[in-house]
Specification:
Elements: H1 8-21, H2 25-28, H3 30-35, H4 47-93, H5 97-110, E1 116-122, E2 134-137, H6 148-151, E3 157-159, H7 163-170, E4 179-184, E5 189-195, H8 208-227
Parallel strand pairs: 1-2
Antiparallel strand pairs: 1-5, 3-4, 4-5
Length: 228
């Protein structure tokens, strides 16, 4: 069996004829169009060159959009780092368990623009303030069966919680809470930050800063208890 071979000139004519019959071909294969070259002659710019230029402009616009997003994220992360640093410095100055707890509440409410903060601390410390945002759990983790799965891990949780859990964390204000970021404070207890917006804390969101906040507060509480 023999195969029909075409020389380069004939193949070029076949390709050119096909493209004339199918002018939309390159729009279906933009990567191919971007690689083609056209002779630079005086006069009007060829339609292919215009297409290539427009493709490059579209790609540049997309890159600029992505860069703007990265810059915005970097700026927001820088602000969060500054707030975490300010929280750390403030907790280093706290010299009692009461001051430590009040500092946590004040800094999270003011600097992080949170709407509800709840501290559940294991134990019964008479020096701690009696406040709506602070609960002492004398029975420890075993007294919070609804949070048993959460307390078995050391990972923050964000998103929506059941009414039972919201009630335990926020009491009378639970009905206003639509999303929550919850952190385990080692063996000290639980920190919960509540928002009236269902989109403020979502499942799958980054937890790096939540872990940093939890570690800072855990260390400060342990130091305050040792001092007292």
């Amino acid at each position: 069996m023999t195969a029909t071979l075409l020389d380069d000139a004939t193949q070029a004519r076949v390709v050119a004829a096909y493209l004339k019959r199918h002018p939309e071909f390159l729009s279906e294969y933009p990567d191919l169009a971007a690689k083609l070259t056209m002779p630079r002659e005086q006069g009007a710019v060829s339609s292919l060159a215009v297409y290539q230029l427009q493709s490059l402009r579209d790609k540049n616009a997309e890159l600029e959009r992505r860069l703007a997003e990265l810059i915005e994220i970097a700026a927001e992360n820088e602000k969060l780092m500054e707030r975490v640093h300010a929280l750390t410095v403030a907790l280093m100055r706290a010299n009692t368990l009461e001051v430590t707890a009040r500092t946590v509440m004040a800094k999270l409410s003011a600097d992080f623009h949170t709407e509800q903060v709840s501290l559940l601390l294991f134990g019964d410390e008479p020096q701690l303030p009696r406040a709506d945002w602070l609960q002492q759990v004398a029975g420890g983790a075993s007294a919070l069966p609804e949070f048993a799965d959460f307390l078995q891990h050391n990972e923050p949780v964000s998103g929506r919680l059941s009414n039972e859990k919201l009630g335990r964390l926020f009491g009378a204000d639970a009905g206003q809470i639509r999303s929550v970021a919850m952190m385990r404070l080692g063996d000290a207890g639980i920190l919960a930050i509540g928002s009236h917006s269902p989109d403020r804390f979502q499942p799958g969101m980054g937890t790096l800063f939540l872990k940093m906040i939890a570690a800072t507060i855990t260390a400060a509480l342990a130091r305050a208890r040792d001092v007292s």
